Amino acid sequence: MAIAENTILRVGIVGCGEITQVAHIPTLGFLSHRFQITYLCDVSQDALNHCQTKVIGPTPKTTRNAEELCASTDVDVVMIANTDAFHVPHALLGLKYNKFVFIEKPMALTLKDADLVIEAEKQSKGKVMVGYMRRYASAFLDAIQEIGSLRQINYARVRDIVGPNSAFVGQSGTYPRTFQDYDQKDTTALAKMNGELIQQALAEELKVPATADLALMWRHLGSLGSHDLSAMREALGMPTKVLGASLCKPTGAPFWSALFQYPSFSVAYESGIDGVPRFDASIEVFGDTKTVLVRYDTPYVKGLPVTMEIKEQMPDGSYRESTVRKTYEDPYTLEMNELYACCVEGKPIKTTAADARRDIEIFGMVLQAGAPNKSSGAQ
User: What are phi and psi of 220, to 5 degrees?
Assistant: First the structure.
């Protein structure tokens, strides 16, 4: 799909829920010299009416039919930000009409669906970019360079423990709303699709019991977990196996952890959601004489920087700590600028469909290591 330089990309958004209201509509509006929202799609007419008034610039068209949006000549980029279960069907529609498709993570919940997207992209003039916004933070990119300079990696920690999302959303200044005017057929279709996806992912692909507990764990990995594990992959590569994993328990706040084995070091991963209103997310890598730490804050409140912290022994034997903050631009803004560069300037896409498939492989490694009564060990 060729797009002229110095053009304003016309964006159609599928899904008018929280992430669209809090992040995508404001960010695309701030970048009005590059983007214009021209179409909105949702199963809730009330959500469409609400979001239509939030768009900066001309009033976008609305529809409850995703194919109508994907087929429109008023849309250059299809942004998929609805419930996870429909990411793949709507991505396939966007590719069917040769659009550039931006998919919020997780791109897919099963290897089968990930392969469908990869194959459809090969047959399309369109392209796929997956929304791993943390991987576009300037501090993260700087940390990749620092990690690459280490003589060897001895150990790493990946941590993501956050409080209730409502605490951050409520202070974002975007005043999002939720709506319940769904047709029963839409609710039924979603429940059916979720059940089929869990059966495919757990029972068919992983050969673990498709229990409610493991299904919930799979969804946690696809939501909060995919941020961390995707960034871990870019910083450190794919682990060779999972040495052990502790999954969510049936009661209490959801917390989970895993120990990943790499060829010459291990990575401790811990994540969870509780009732404390704070955002504690980081990646820390330990070398012989230098430690590199990327520290994330909530992206829902704009202007909170992602920072890189370095602790190192200097050649003269002294110890130095430094904190690098290159920009106050939030990861969503940086991600949208990257999207523009990929669409208009032909810049290679980093977070591709094939890249996103690796997350699903890691999810499987974690569940197979931690699932009760598993038939096989971690792979």
Answer: -65, -40
